[in-house]
């Protein structure tokens, strides 16, 4: 299922490969002013969790903060 | 509502069933009737008329009723992961923890790694005491439902936001890292003896003294993917360095650049910070002391001046703003 935002950006399905790409280093390249996103990026970098766990955590973060992450959502395909 | 009120006004609000978070001196909080509130001890505040020290007769009230449904919980030191885990999917966990106990130490070290921290965030502050009472009086937090006060337990007001309401958690940090040495640490800890300076193992206390930083005015600034998270120095001993928050492996730290005039710096930063829908704010006692903010106006919204600030994790020397729009 694709979650739609008010301006048409979408949070990709939790099985999208974008989340694993983010978990494997892409999240550190995200350009963001969102405090939680920056802190989470550092946690993901420091974490020894398997990529699938990190990927789900990042997905859940985007679902939670979707209205605040429109610019970040637009970057997902390029990270 | 975010303002200083008399004990009689607080009592009246509680008796009308209003849901509140209070900050104030212990003697004032002890006089509040049971009801829908949590609280923590602290006598320092930033108010519209300036920084203030309130020792009796008043409490600072943050009304939560208008934000949404509120439920309450409290946690022992070995239960703190529940703060986020039990938070509403759409909302936040307004959390107050007394300084100096196991809850404070464990939250500081562990909160950034609790599974739900970034999707069900804790925000709030660390309760303290008048600085002249350090070592003589313990900070307390209160569960207003029973009027119970705790020296080592976290109290939480879970704010369940209605659909369509959006939460923002923002910080105002006056400190930026300098252009000097990069410090890294191999262990999580708020007391440490060694670090690596530009990769070289170094005696941390000797390094601090060598740079003339032992007074503690300037924190370490950790780089969290571009977000600056401070760790303030508490005591630089002969061998050990104690800090008000832990350092973490994998984070690069530098000492902060000096801040010339805190009042001017805060005014400039707060003039650019939105306070639309501000639900709560708090600022740090070290900013209050080192910035000599008593009696000075800095703008923004009033709030307690605390022994630590919570925005996802424990922060130092930082102003936290929680907004709901």
Show the helix and strand layout:
The complex is a heterodimer of chains A (79) and B (325).
Chain A: E1 3-4, E2 10-11, H1 17-23, H2 35-46, H3 51-65, H4 70-73
Antiparallel strand pairs in A: 1-2
Helix pairs in contact in A: 1-3
Chain B: E1 2-6, H1 7-15, E2 20-24, H2 26-29, E3 37-41, E4 44-47, E5 50-53, E6 58-63, E7 69-75, H3 81-85, E8 91-98, H4 102-110, E9 122-127, E10 141-143, E11 148-150, E12 154-160, E13 167-172, E14 183-184, E15 189-192, E16 194-197, E17 200-203, H5 204-211, E18 220-224, E19 227-231, E20 233-236, E21 241-247, E22 252-255, H6 262-272, E23 278-284, H7 285-290, E24 303-306, E25 309-311, E26 313-315, E27 319-324
Parallel strand pairs in B: 2-3, 8-9, 23-24
Antiparallel strand pairs in B: 1-6, 2-6, 3-10, 4-5, 4-24, 7-12, 8-12, 9-25, 10-11, 13-27, 14-16, 15-21, 16-17, 18-19, 18-22, 20-21, 23-27, 25-26
Q: Number of helix segments of chain A?
A: 4
Strand content of chain B: 35-45%
Report the count of strand segments of chain B. 27
The portion of residues forming beta strands of chain A comes to: 5-15%
- Determine the fraction of residues in helical runs of chain A and give it as a percent range: 40-55%
Largest interface: A-B, 21 and 25 residues
Could you tell me how far the N terminus lies from the C terminus of chain B, measured between alpha carbons in angstroms?
15 Å
Helix content of chain B: 10-25%
Structural domain count of chain A? 1
Q: Please count the helical segments of chain B.
A: 7
Based on helices, strands and strand pairing, what is the structural class of chain A? mainly alpha
Average pLDDT level of chain B:
95
């Amino acid at each position: 299922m694709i979650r739609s935002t008010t301006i048409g950006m979408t949070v990709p399905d939790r099985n999208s490969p974008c989340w694993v790409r983010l978990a494997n280093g892409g999240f550190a390249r995200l350009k963001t002013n969102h405090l939680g996103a920056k802190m989470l990026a550092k946690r993901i970098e420091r974490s020894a969790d398997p990529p699938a766990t990190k990927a789900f955590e990042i997905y859940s973060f985007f679902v939670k903060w979707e209205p605040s992450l429109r610019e970040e959502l637009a970057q997902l395909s390029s990270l | 509502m975010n303002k200083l009120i008399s004990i009689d006004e607080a009592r009246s609000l509680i008796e009308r069933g209003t849901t509140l978070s209070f900050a104030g001196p212990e003697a004032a909080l002890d006089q509040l009737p049971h009801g829908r509130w949590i609280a923590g001890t602290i006598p320092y505040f930033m108010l519209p008329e300036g920084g203030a020290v309130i020792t009796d007769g008043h409490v600072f009230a943050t009304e939560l009723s208008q934000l949404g449904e509120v439920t309450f919980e409290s946690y022992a030191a070995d239960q703190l992961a529940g703060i986020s885990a039990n938070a509403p999917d759409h909302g936040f966990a307004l959390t107050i923890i007394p300084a100096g106990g196991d809850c404070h130490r464990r939250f500081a070290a562990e909160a950034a790694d609790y599974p739900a921290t970034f999707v069900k965030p804790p925000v709030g502050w660390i309760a303290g005491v008048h600085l002249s009472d350090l070592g003589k009086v313990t900070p307390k937090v209160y569960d207003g439902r029973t009027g119970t006060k705790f020296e080592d337990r976290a109290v939480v007001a879970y704010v369940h936001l209605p659909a369509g309401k959006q939460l923002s958690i923002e910080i105002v940090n006056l400190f930026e890292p300098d252009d000097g040495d990069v410090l890294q640490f191999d262990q999580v800890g708020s007391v440490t003896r060694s670090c690596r300076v530009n990769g070289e193992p170094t005696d941390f206390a000797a390094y601090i003294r060598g740079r003339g930083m032992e007074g503690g005015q300037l924190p370490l600034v950790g780089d969290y993917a571009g977000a600056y998270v401070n760790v303030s120095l508490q005591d630089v001993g002969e061998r050990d360095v104690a800090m008000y928050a832990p350092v973490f492996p994998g984070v690069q730290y530098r000492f902060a650049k000096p801040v010339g005039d805190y009042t001017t710096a805060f005014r400039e930063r707060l003039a650019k910070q939105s306070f639309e829908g501000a639900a709560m704010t708090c600022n740090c006692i070290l900013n209050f002391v080192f910035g000599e903010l008593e009696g000075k106006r800095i703008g923004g919204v009033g709030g307690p001046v605390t022994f630590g600030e919570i925005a996802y994790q424990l922060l130092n020397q930082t102003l936290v703003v929680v907004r709901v729009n």
